Amino acid sequence: MTDLTGDEVTELTLTVNGERFTREVPVRRLLSDFLRHDLGLTGTHVGCEHGVCGCCTVRVDGTAVRSCLMLAVQAEAADVVTIEGLSKEGEPLHPVQQAFQDAHGLQCGFCTPGFVLAVCGVLEDDSRTELLGDDEIREAISGNLCRCTGYQHIVEAVRIADAKMRPGAAAPESRA
Amino acid sequence: MKERVFGKRMPRTSDERLLRGRGMYVDDVPVRGALEVVFVRSPHAHARITEIDLEEARATPGVHAVYGAGDLGAFDRPLPLLFPHPDLVEPRTQNPIASDEVHYAGQIVAMIVAEDRYVAEDARERVRLELDPLPVVVDVDAALEDGADQVHSDMEGNVSGHIVQQVGDPDAAFRDAHLVLRHRYILERSAAMPMETRGMVAEWDPRGEELMLWNATQVVHPLRSGLAQFFDIPESRIRITAPDTGGGFGVKGFFMYPEEVLVPWAARELRRPVKWIEDRVEHFTASHHERTQIHDVEIAVTEDGVVTALRDEFLVDTGAFVPYGLELGRITAGQIGGAYRIPNIHVGFRGVYTNTVVCTPYRGAGRPHMCFVTERALDDVARALGIDQFEVRRRNFVGDDEFPYRRDGLVTADGFTVIMDSGAYFTQMSMLEEALDMPALREAQAASRETTKLLGVGLACYVESTGGGPYEGAHVIVEPDTGTVRVTTGFTDQGQSHSTTLAQVAAERLGADLASVQVELGDTAKFRWGIGTYASRGAVHGASAVDRAAGTVRDKALRLAANMLEVSPADLEVEDGRISVKGSPGTSVTLGQVAKAAKPDRYGFDNDLAALAALGPAVPRESSDEGPLLHSDEEPGLEATGFFSPQNSTWASGVHAAVIELDTETGAVRFVRYVVVHDCGIVINPLVVDGQVIGGIAQGVGGSFYERLAYDAQGQIQNASLMDFLIPYATEVPEVELHHLETPSPLNPLGVKGAGEGGAIPVPAVAAAAIDDALSAFGVAVRRMPLDPEELMDLAAASGAHSDKGDR
């Protein structure tokens, strides 16, 4: 029988929300479990553990990734941002977070951190001069599942945040 | 005049915590030293356990215990039957762990408790389980055939009960009918699939006498009762808290799942906190499903398209056990007739066991089925007689002036006679038609027929008995000094925004500032009595209870303030937490000051003498009943508890229409428009209600075109992952155009009706009607849902739509 104890451990150094951590981790530990249970950053939620729902989305070196599909050791030397790192306690909410509140873009809140981080990734793209149209917004969030909202208020939140983060940008052309 | 907060479209008051990632869901509860559980589940749908060897699993380093049924002692007994009924025959519920025969793939056969989940899953690989397969029953019709295989080997047949109800004289109506139509209507199995799976953490006090259970459940109090019985300890020794919960939609409203007994039991055995977080793939066979019903319907109709009678005999797939008895079928039956007069009704159903996961309510809870039947039947009448789909409904609607409308002989699941309390179906329909602009749509449809993308317009009305079950209660207290208003109630929140809507109700009734109101939910230690969040009952029961409690607090605040200000209570008004003399706003006290005056200890702890002056503690007086402080016949504290239990269900209603585009070459469906007129009585917060309705519609869209739990003949789910069971993303659901109509309910002080489920109910009927309409030139009639793209393409091909266009 193969060894099932999985107790091989290695040292991991990475930056999470601007803070540098060095930890011993089992090599088989998922990044999502490492963030949640080793670092106590429970804002990253685990919805399916097979990379479909997007609840566990975090940003690794700027890219939105599913932390349930990465091993913690794969994040060696990476710069990770979780929902807790988006705006500090006591500071105003990030425009995307604020827009979710204003538009009632969350109900149970379980998928919300994943959505917010995925949306941040999309809206920070500086190459755009036009605001996103609704079809583009729906496409942009189509990697994340929400079972409560029916997405309409999330689309509205993205529209609000996009306008706030890109002042002076042209309205989207009307699309079929 | 101050702006009202009740009825106002306003963002939620409690989102910031969730947006910053500071929510506390059950997997986030910081319990030190918690061991973790994984379950070993039967891979077979029906089999006899011939051997189970747990020794190697027990020997795995890091494993604390492995339990089979034989280890449970007195706990190896059937879980409770929640809803007994005289017509229920041989009701079967499962034991926490199966010991002899397993009846569905996913049934628990062993439990592993280890240092963490990784280790526990390692140990699961080392359990040796030998099963001797038995014949599997999956198909509901086949389960009823003579000589059918048995779901339970020791039972005669597979039927758990048959309930028949009758309104009027259906036999006579069928004899006199101009036309009788006969059709079979089917909805298939689906599941609620909240983004957070189930989970719980159990911890006992060191003596093993008091249980603390954090559980992602919709029903903390009923679960407390159930566990108290199972553990044979007083209810007061059990505290259950529902932390932030990531969606429920009914699947977390069921209790008691086997895990809800096993996790607390193991925690007591091991004297350690024990935690179980359900895996998503596990969720597909460990958490309940709903939906499969087969309806054989006869429709008696006049030549004008007036339906004089409906006869419906239907089958409810209950899965392998019936912990909820016949409730789903009873709920379904109670909705028959919908928004229409239909004076003669025969409705009967049978519960049918199958070797599948147990079925209990999922958003809509049996109502989408009867809506599908009633609405499709109306469309079949329209088609048979050549009447327009709007007109056929108008010829059958209960009139706006005919409420309350009774169906004597038919009862709701609560056992009350069906009496639709209020509604305005004609008004709804007119609002919908105005919003739709049918002439323009018919023109666009005609043009679409020159292409391979066919437009179709479908509509369906629905009625929904909301607010079932007995009462909820609420406690409202104004805290001294700060004036913070704390509202505490027993029912739970899974995203329905109760913290905001209950705060609106309390602030409005009390005259308090909304920002000063804090709401606490779902903790048996904080509010003693409650039922739970299901059946669209939060607003009907909970908000009414808050309204009552806040009203009592307001009355008391006015009495005390009148005494303090030496005026009559009738001369006072409350606004923004300040009670002042009408016409003399300078003469006032705050709710916080009144609360302070009502305190038993009455100490100042306050150096601001001016602020204390209103309390007048130093005024000389003859007795305690003179002067500004509390009279001897008043209880201390500015607080009150209120309960509300309605006399009967409130009936919400609405009408939905979809304009869809069906691509006959690919079977793809695109929503062009989705228009809703929704009536849930008086609306507490339109933004919140919009969210509920739109979210429900998205689930309905899933149930119409994407979500089918596909069992094979061996009782194995073929799509038990989110990769294969397709929940709609943002790209699959429509932008909803929503119109509110507010017909107050006479059955509660606020005039509210439930809003949580209505959005989901009519969608399969709407979607089917729109497909029919897109293919209307080809005589298509959709009578079962869901339809996936392949089936849609087959439908188009069989109707000739595809080949017809392909030839061009």
Describe the structure in your own words.
The complex is a heterodimer of chains A (176) and B (808). Chain A has helices at 31-38, 95-102, 112-123, 134-140, 152-165; strands at 9-16, 19-26, 57-60, 63-66, 79-81. By secondary structure, chain A is α+β, with helices and mostly antiparallel strands. Chain A has a 5-stranded mixed beta sheet with strand order 2-1-5-3-4, with helices on both faces. In chain A, a hairpin with a 2-residue loop joins strand 1 and strand 2 (19-26). The mean pLDDT of chain A is 93. Chain B has 808 residues and is an alpha+beta fold. Chain B contains 21 helices and 29 strands. In chain B, the strands form 7 sheets. In chain B, strands 3-5-1-12-9-10-11 form a 7-stranded mixed beta sheet, with helices on both faces. In chain B, strands 7-15-14-13-8-29 form a 6-stranded mixed beta sheet. In chain B, strands 18-26-27-28 form a 4-stranded mixed beta sheet, sandwiched between helices. In chain B, helix 14 (498-510) packs parallel to helix 15 (538-565) and helix 18 (686-706) packs across helix 19 (763-774). Chain B is globular and about 90 Å long. Chain B starts with 14 loop residues before the first helix and ends with a helix. Classes of the chains: A alpha+beta (176), B alpha+beta (808). At the A-B interface, helix 2, helix 3, helix 4 and helix 5 of A face helix 1, helix 3 and helix 18 of B.
